[in-house]
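Sequence in, structure out.
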Amino acid sequence: MTSTIETVRICQECSKRFTARTTQTRFCCLKCNRRNYKKRVRQGKVEQSEKETIEKRQIAKSDVSAKSYLSIRDACSLLTISRTTLWRLIGDRKIKSVKLGRRIVISRSSIDKLFI
């Protein structure tokens, strides 16, 4: 069944006025339709990437909070401070650390005592 309805619409992509042949038409031409589709696909990929990033951050924080001994990187992420600030706290002997070979390890109880 063909329709003889002609309505003046505004393209959702380029905002130009056009005459639509159906009530479902959203774009003035195929080019605008394709541009809008690409935007939606791109936006979906960005949202998926952001979602994965948030999940990875939450997993990393939960892993760090379960450890009883932390590396410098883990301690920085747990306290949300820079490495320089952490080294300053270690130098001022506010946080105790132990050197195991080449690694510096900080006990979780030492960090907890910092806040008491």
